[in-house]
Amino acid sequence: MNSWARFVVGATTTGVATIAYAAGVERRRWTLREATLPVLPVGSRPLRILHISDLHMTPGQASKQRWVAELAALKPDLVVNTGDNLSHARAVPNVVAALGPLLERPGLFVFGSNDYFGPTPKNPLRYLRRTERRIHGEPLPWRDLRAALVERGWEDATHSRVTLDVDGIRVAAAGVDDPHLSLDRYDRIAGGPGTNADLRLGLTHSPEPRVLDAFAADGYDLVLAGHTHGGQLRVPGIGALVTNCGLDRSRARGASRWGAHTWLHVSAGLGTSPFAPVRFACPPEASLLTLVPPPIGSQGQKTTPASAAADVG
């Protein structure tokens, strides 16, 4: 066998092995990502948020359901779900079963495109070039899912302002419908969450810059999003090749600053489209975010709201 033939055989073998790993191993390598974000007022106790996104559930998927349900053992103070829960019309019971123990905790949610419409086969090269042409799959039973989540006590933050008292920490939250489908109507929540909150929290499925800019301009401390799958296929040393939205590739997953005063956290999510069931260098994840006050004397240090100070006195 000459050197060219050996190269072809080696490259083919490597490619097949990589695809087998991405499809058979990594997409089920459930991972908990942890981060600490300095967004609370001075004197606040830590607040732990479990951020879940992009379950893309289909009937079955027992290992995913078990792993998500076991996250309840973390005892988060608040659970935030940023959408794309469904990939099949009969998957609502599976999503509810996975979230079951977590539904006993305070929770907030917004939906994504794959709560409204099922996935469809796509040319993978489409993701490498931005296009506005979208083909929707079958309608999904998002109303049934919403009813199940609300019945268990979670708050739908879609185009709504929600105020929660989470173990003494006042959370003012608001969210938008999915910008990926151009359903966001930020004007319905515009104007900021007020000054009496300890945490101003924004929710969106797709982290489109226009939405992030609006949350930042209104003084939100933290915005949570999903949608990107962290790039889904990442190149070691390079990172994500695409985000499937207007967000830059360096922010495809994890925490970053957005402007001078706002933090952004993008979840790489827990699922994939059933038509592209692969992940590489980007395992499926949920995130446990520990929110704390900034270090004393640091720039951007938050003070305790006046009403909270009065309560302490």
Quick structural overview:
This is Metallophosphoesterase. With 313 residues, this protein is α/β, with parallel strands linked by helices.
What's the layout of helices and strands?
Blueprint: H1 3-24, E1 31-38, E2 47-52, H2 62-70, E3 78-81, H3 92-99, E4 107-109, H4 113-116, H5 142-151, E5 155-156, E6 161-166, E7 169-175, E8 199-203, H6 209-217, E9 222-225, E10 234-235, E11 239-240, E12 254-258, E13 262-266, E14 285-292, H7 306-312
Parallel strand pairs: 1-14, 2-3, 3-4, 4-5, 7-8, 8-9, 9-13
Antiparallel strand pairs: 2-14, 6-7, 10-11, 12-13
Helix pairs in contact: 2-3, 3-5
Defining traits:
disordered C terminus, Purple Acid Phosphatase, chain A, domain 2, 22% helix, 6-stranded mixed sheet, 313 residues, alpha/beta, 14 strands, 7 helices
What do these coordinates show?
The chain has one domain (3-312): Metallo-dependent phosphatases (Purple Acid Phosphatase, chain A, domain 2), CATH 3.60.21. The protein has seven helices and 14 strands. The protein has helices at residues 3-24, 62-70, 92-99, 113-116, 142-151, 209-217, 306-312, and strands at residues 31-38, 47-52, 78-81, 107-109, 155-156, 161-166, 169-175, 199-203, 222-225, 234-235, 239-240, 254-258, 262-266, 285-292. A hairpin with a 2-residue loop joins strand 6 and strand 7. Helix 2 packs parallel to helix 3 (92-99) and helix 3 packs parallel to helix 5 (142-151). The radius of gyration is 20 Å and the shape is globular.
